[in-house]
Amino acid sequence: MKESDNTRRARRGSGAITLRDVARLAGVAPITASRVLNTPEQVSADVRQKVLAAVQKTGYVPNRMAGGLASSRSRLIAAVVPSTVMSVFMQTIESLNGTLFDAGYQLMLGQSGYSASREESLLEAIIGRRPDGIFLTGILRPGLGRTRLLASGIPVVETWDLTPTPIDMLVGFSHVDTGREVARFLAGKGRRRLAMIRAEDERADRRATAFAEEAARLGLAPVQVVNVGASRTILSGREALGHLLAQAPDVDAVFCSSDLLALGVVTEARVRGMAIPERLAVIGFGDVPFAADMVPALSTVHIKGAEIGRLAAQHLIDRAEGREVAQRVVDVGFSIVERETT
User: Fold this and answer.
1) Orientation angle between helical segments 30-38 and 19-26, nearest 10 degrees
2) 156-195 pLDDT tens trace
3) What torsion do the CA atoms of 311, 315, 320, 324 make, to the nearest 10 degrees?
4) CB 57 within 8 A of CB 96
5) Domain spans in the chain, listed from the N-terminal domain onward
6) CA distance linking residue 219 with residue 224, whole number of Å
7) What is the CATH number of domain 75-173+305-332?
8) pLDDT score, position 325
9) pLDDT digits (tens, 9 = 90+) for 284-312
10) Burial level of 96, CB count in 10 A (0-12/13-18/19+)?
11) Which CATH number fits domain 175-303: 3.40.50.2300, 3.30.565.10, 2.40.128.110, 3.40.50.800?
């Protein structure tokens, strides 16, 4: 289908269709076209139909940034997450996105790859775009990124962690309490020689430290730790169990910093003919969807990821729309789900 003369003329110059072009094609004033797109209840049905037909014909997309400058509202929420690939954060992201979308907001997602410097670069770019709110995974430590966020005045919600001194708002749980509870759980199962296989991550650091300290308090043998670095794959879990058994062949329980690493440990144990859980108990972290479907089914720490996403989204929406948030720090807690591997 050929473009109309009006549409072809509109593409000259910068090449971008403008609201003025849409208004001209619809035969209305630009302010009327703007009302159709932003406050349609103020315009008659006949005029709305003309303007929307012109929008469809031209392919015009409103400049939300320009609208935001005029109204101080972008209807955009930015989120920084470590990863989205086989990620423990997927339920949170999906819930965050769904809640925002239903309220008329869009989600812009950035991946830090567990890198502090990359997270700081992302935050600099995000702040410059002036979103209505910012979602962070974890607690932002003192530094330039935190200083910039405080100076920006943009509503911020930190998640998946707990602190009495958040930047603004927080929805999460205690990693220290998680580590302690897993040590108690394994000790209660009669396990006396505990180990941890973990990736390089500040939150995993605190879980591992609390896990080892609680094991010592319970009178157990010193906890053996294998750090797989940045790798969070099934293969790294398999290799880590090999390293662990070489240094502590009598270990009888392993706490993994992610369910993916735990899947690798279970796979390697089965290859070596180690009975699970009789010879080796394994517990993961995150309760991702495959954990319950494994053979044997994986015991793990369940995190209320969807609730974190929903509450964080609602906090940001409330602040963006000028409403007070009564409870700025929410501890959603966690639970240990026992399945066949323990």
Assistant:
1) 100
2) 999 999 999 999 999 999 999 999 999 999 999 999 999 9
3) 150
4) no
5) 5-62, 75-173+305-332, 175-303
6) 15
7) 3.40.50.2300
8) 93
9) 999 998 999 999 999 999 999 999 999 99
10) buried
11) 3.40.50.2300
